[in-house]
Design brief:
- The structure holds two protein chains of two kinds.
- Chain A is of the alpha/beta class.
- Helix content of chain A is 28%, strand content 18%.
- Chain A has helices spanning 10-14, 34-47, 80-84, 97-101, 119-127, and strands at 20-25, 51-56, 92-96, 115-117, 131-134.
- The chains are: A alpha/beta, B alpha/beta.
- The A-B interface holds A 27-32, 58-59, 62, 65-70, 72-73, 75, 77, 79, 101-105 and B 11-13, 15-16, 37-38, 41, 44-48, 50, 67-69, 71-78, 87.
Chain lengths: 135, 105
């Protein structure tokens, strides 16, 4: 009976279909809008109960840097949001070790617990996805 | 009143663009290099900019970074020694005091 939904069989078709989504974050925060936009889409995807992974590499690792204080540039500090992702069942955060090291950073510099992976492991994670969204 | 030499402004991360590298390659002694926005990552220890900044300091360039941008990015505690931190007022002063300004886009 599809009349009640205007002929759209969304329930039947989408229920139970879980895809693996990876969000590839390669930009520093604040200099461009990419990091914030990525986070917005990640939160939307959480509402659809998908299998979400966040990948941080290149300048994207700067998004997770501790101690961000944006009052003086009058921009919203969105770094605390990464700590809230756990509450949306988004727990797969992967950070590329090479990218951290190339920026003088360590795992201790990050706002959230993450899984440190090598570039080769990162590539394997990317290969393993149904959908890759790049920011 | 004699004005200071050229002011170079870099606003992109050294690991994303080569503007800092190009700027340092062209900055003459006694000129000033100001890092703003994502450019401030260049004055942090262990970054792709560290070598370039040390090279610029050794060549008697003055290197400044906008502290509101450093603080926004959580990089305020890893600034390379010898780099001066300025606020927006200091930014304006640098522009006003300089004979010429070049933004490395």
């Amino acid at each position: 009976m599809t009349e009640s939904t205007g002929g759209i069989e969304m329930e039947e078709d989408s229920a139970g279909t879980v895809k693996k989504f990876a969000f590839v974050n390669r930009k520093a925060p604040y200099g461009t809008i990419y990091a914030l936009e990525s986070l917005e889409v990640v939160l939307i995807s959480a509402a659809f109960d998908q299998d979400v992974s966040l990948l941080f590499l290149d300048d994207g690792v700067y998004q997770l840097k501790k101690g961000q204080a944006t009052k003086a540039i009058d921009v919203k500090n969105f770094s605390p949001t990464y700590r809230a992702l756990e509450g949306y069942d988004i727990e797969k955060l992967y950070v590329e070790r090479e990218s951290l090291e190339a920026r003088g950073l360590t795992e201790d510099d990050l706002v959230v617990p993450v899984e440190l992976v090598s570039a080769a492991e990162m590539a394997a994670i990317m290969e393993d996805q149904d959908v890759v969204l790049s920011f | 009143m004699g004005k200071a030499d050229m002011l170079h402004i870099v606003n992109k991360s050294p690991s994303e663009k080569n503007t800092l590298e190009s700027c340092v390659r062209h900055a003459k002694p006694h000129s000033t290099i100001l890092l703003i926005e994502d450019g401030v990552y260049g004055v942090t220890k262990g970054s792709a900019g560290e070598k370039l900044i040390k090279q610029a300091l050794a060549a008697n360039c003055t290197v400044c970074a906008l502290w509101p941008d450093l603080e926004a990015r959580g990089m305020q505690d890893s600034v390379i020694d010898g780099v001066k931190q300025v606020d927006y007022g200091g930014f304006v002063d640098l522009v006003a005091e300089s004979k010429n300004v070049q933004s490395w886009l």
